[in-house]
Amino acid sequence: MSRFEYAPAPESRAIVDIKSSYGLFINGAFTEATDGKPFKTVSPASEEVLAEISEAGPADVDKAVKAARKAYDKVWGTMPGRDRAKYLYRIARLIQERSRELAVLESLDNGKPIRESRDVDLPLVAAHFFYYAGWADKLEYAGAGENPQPLGVAAQVIPWNFPLMMLAWKIAPALAAGNTVVLKPAETTPLTALAFAEICQQADLPPGVVNIITGAGRTGQALVEHEGVDKVAFTGSTAVGRAIAKSVAGTDKKVTLELGGKAANIVFEDAPIDQTIEGIVNGIFFNQGHVCCAGSRLLVQESVYDEVLARLKRRMGTLRVGDPLDKNTDIGAINSAEQLARIRELSQVGEDEGAERWSPECELPTQGYWFAPTVFTGVSQAHRIAREEIFGPVLSVLTFRTPAEAVEKANNTPFGLSAGVWTDKGSRILWMADQLRAGVVWANTFNRFDPTSPFGGYKESGYGREGGRHGLEAYLAH
Amino acid sequence: MVWRPTLPTKDSARLDVRKTYKLYVGGAFPRSESGRSYVVNNARGKFLANASQASRKDARDAVVAARKAFGGWSGKTAYNRGQVLYRIAEVMEGRHEQFSAEVAAAEGLSISKARAVVDAAIDRWVWYAGWADKLAQVVGSSNPVAGPYFDFSLPEATGVVAVLAPQDSSLLGLTSVIAPAIVSGNTVVAVTSFERPLPAVTLGEVMATSDLPGGVVNILTGSASEIGPWLAGHLDVNAIDLAGVTDPEEATALEVAAAENLKRVRRPVDEDWTESPGLSRLTQYLELKTVWHPIGV
Amino acid sequence: MTTTDTGVDSLADVTSSEDRLRRFLLGLPGVDQVGAEARAATLSTRSIKTTAKAYALDLAIQMIDLTTLEGQDTPGKVRALCSKAKRPDPADPTAPQVAAVCVYPDLVATAKYELRGSGINVASVATAFPSGRSSLAIKVQDTQDAVAAGADEVDMVIDRGAFLSGRYGLVFDEIAAIREAAGDAHLKVILETGELVTYDNVRRASWLAMLAGADFIKTSTGKVSPAATLPVTLVMLEAVRDYHEATGLHIGVKPAGGIRTAKDAIKYLVTVNETAGPDWLDPELFRFGASSLLNDLLMQRTKLATGNYPGPDYFTLD
């Protein structure tokens, strides 16, 4: 009897309509960039050029900030919360209605599997707008004082790993609180943000409330450093976050930063084993490991080390790597050549430093940027792959003997974004949660997100929280 | 398309098809089991329709339906409940003209004032919809007890809430007493304004087409004085809102009856339904559950 | 406690006393409900198309235990069912046969006669199916009757009352006794997971049945709701996979009841493929206890071949 080979099951691309080139979305309309050099966005799965994107130069940034300022002064900042809520509800509904299209676009531009963009990213994006829509007319209950006020114009710079979801995390609370925004998506994944600009138009959102400008680091820097900006929100690397923190020093700009991580995913001997394996896999291979809170350091209690490793490897053998638009793909493409080079480099370092590298047999496409799911065993705290954020499908496995040792190792990092704990013992979960220096602790699950749940880091993983009641505070003066 | 039963200017020569106004119980629209109906006139005394006159047995059936719906409704995610309430607002918006005409007729308002009332009612649903997934964040707490315990308190729906709806405000008032009960997961048996029951039936039709599970809201047209005591004394009802009771002695009697199984009682007070409602009605139908769990290795 | 000849050295110790058996079962790793259900839901999103679908549909047909277990069953009904089993789609001779016909013991002889020479097995429920509320002697007799009438496979029920009250030794001994009474017949042990309720219980009962000599572990009688579910089947597939890892033995899995559509059946096959592995994609190791499922599989099969959506009037009743 032949094996059960899944035939290709590609999601249709026909649903998306990608223009050959895109301008900047400023003051409610797409406009030509006045300075700056256009660049191309490619599909990382095939290296196919998807569209030409405008680069916003300093003059464009200035225009966008001024449009946001005007919209804040004249319309949005003074609009009753009840009406801001209705706009946000409209946006949430439009996202729900267009979610398949946006999911396909996201997978094309980012390389993530359609199963994830369809079942995780898009539902969360819509939910985020729904949730904050409900806050817009209830700000006095948010715990930020009796008469909380917006800050003004928010400069928002987001990464490429969850392009539309990061946009939602930034824009929804900002608008709910009464701010206007200028948002810059990552240069490798601008398409869904530009589609979102269209959604703002469909929602009849007043011009200038949301401005989307595209470009790379230079554009981001010009935006963050613009004098007309009251608030800076950034998600991305710790290095850039640190630079932003320095650049706003001495100004009145409020800042929130959501940066890198090197999360410990801690497995105790009494863990529910099959679900733990799923959690480890989800922790590090979800979204190709392009997740700031990825469970990239697996800490396994020595008494179950062999069993956990054997089961993990067996499970990794069933992961399907390939075409992001195939509905059966578990692991898609690495987002860019640059990121692939970094993953390769750090993996090589892991080998050179003596850790043992293993990947399941898997055939990678020849075109595009690909990296097989990889696990390193025999890793110690001193290894670079145990300390540096790889931001790829690479897991470093360490061991521990006691809960105290697990905590010590987990906390022994400059990062502090997230952690995972796997055990059937409730009191131990709470003890671990108490001890771990991380902004999110998942117990018997991993990589869960919800608009009601605050997310953000300790230490060099940044400051401020996104999501929940606390996520509003980042956009309110109190 | 748009039905305007009582708008005075009607230039079409076409004869109306009139709507039958019935009860809304368990997701269906039955007539009263008693077979009774009563005449509903507009504010000027002109005949509008015969409304079903609910009996104590209709109230009994409605409580059964509300109880049956409670587990499913309270067990839904808060996000889901919020979406359903928002959907009610969306569907109401599509029937704006119908509601405006009915409110104008019932309350004797000009059509523009009636429209403003409908606007406010829709906005109220939107406001409450947003509370679904925020309530626990605002009224719940994590409690720093002095000991190795994690201790937190969460609100939960109390159960079946009987609502004697305002007699004057046929739609905005009704919305303002139903929405805060169901948003947190309670289910409702509402007795409408006796003289102005028609907008409530139309609201039931909106609910029936808004993904609200059958039985979450049950609407009885008829006399609160007749049905109220049965609901107040009903041992499978957890709370009662006396908003529509105008006679203080009657309210006291209902409160006494409600004390039998220690129902949570909301006494009637003079309320301006156009004002922002605040949280008091929302929190009235909540239980607070506190959980202790040890912390240790 | 008796030991069984299927007990393998590494696990023989486990069944040497009730106390050890209990400690072993209670020491199995827990199953987190949310995680298990999330995994099953993810597997449900697999999209099986074209050639893969054709393969899955035919495989699923070959895995069916075409079942009738009603008080109103008659020889006539069973004859009709057997005829359907042999020629599921009279319009299409390429449609494969099902694996077995499953009936009550008193109708085994009828089924056996009707299926003679077809290669289709006769399975019989036994042991005071579906409740199992009878003495061991009667359960043994019930089994022997079925086997004597020609049953190739016996589907027994475990004593859920004993299991839920922690009398694992009693459940074990009963399975072992039926194992013996069934002789050469294949023994499927029905856990009735709808009554065991928790996944922890499903995992324990799966191991208990395997240790006691089951050839197959089966979810449900079909008389209790919920019957088979994907997460329950997932947990059972994990159990047979782990048992194979420990002993080298292949134990089969049979979800029964509630699987009515080809789409559902394919989700189960995906779960088999990605949990226990391709070895289990075989009627020897995976079965569906079902009746109406067959016609839906045939309809989808026709759709795939012709491109048109067929209607139920074009497929025979059993």
Describe, in short, the structure shown.
Chain A is of the alpha/beta class and 478 residues long. In chain A, 38% of the residues lie in helices and 16% in strands.
Description:
The complex is a heterotrimer of chains A (478), B (297) and C (318). Chain A has 478 residues and is of the alpha/beta class. Chain A is built from 14 helices and 20 strands. Chain A has helices spanning 58-76, 81-97, 99-110, 114-136, 163-177, 191-202, 217-225, 238-247, 273-285, 305-316, 337-352, 403-411, 426-435, 468-473, and strands at 21-22, 24-26, 29-31, 39-42, 49-53, 149-150, 153-157, 180-184, 210-212, 231-235, 254-258, 264-267, 297-301, 356-358, 374-377, 394-400, 418-422, 440-443, 462-463, 476-477. In chain A, the strands form five sheets. Chain A has a seven-stranded mixed β-sheet with strand order 14-15-16-13-12-17-18, sandwiched between helices. In chain A, strands 9-8-7-10-11-19 form a six-stranded mixed β-sheet, with helices on both faces. In chain A, helix 6 links the parallel strand 8 and strand 9 (210-212). In chain A, helix 3 (99-110) crosses helix 4 (114-136), helix 4 (114-136) packs parallel to helix 5 and helix 9 (273-285) packs across helix 10. The model of chain A has no long low-confidence stretch (mean pLDDT 97). Chain B is α/β, with parallel strands linked by helices. Helix content of chain B is 41%, strand content 17%. Chain B has a five-stranded parallel β-sheet with strand order 7-6-5-8-9, sandwiched between helices. In chain B, strands 3-4-10 form a three-stranded antiparallel β-sheet. In chain B, strand 5, helix 6 and strand 6 form a beta-alpha-beta unit. The longest helix of chain B is centred in the middle third of the chain and has 21 residues, at 111-131. Chain B is globular, with a radius of gyration of 20 Å. With 318 residues, chain C is an alpha/beta fold. Chain C has one domain: Aldolase class I (TIM Barrel), CATH 3.20.20. Chain C is 48% helix and 10% strand. Chain C is built from 14 helices and eight strands. In chain C, helix 12 packs parallel to helix 13 (262-275). Chain A: Residues 31-476 form the Aldehyde dehydrogenase domain. Chain A: Keywords: Oxidoreductase. Chain A: Pfam families: Aldedh (PF00171). Chain A: The active site is at residue 258. Chain A: Belongs to the aldehyde dehydrogenase family.
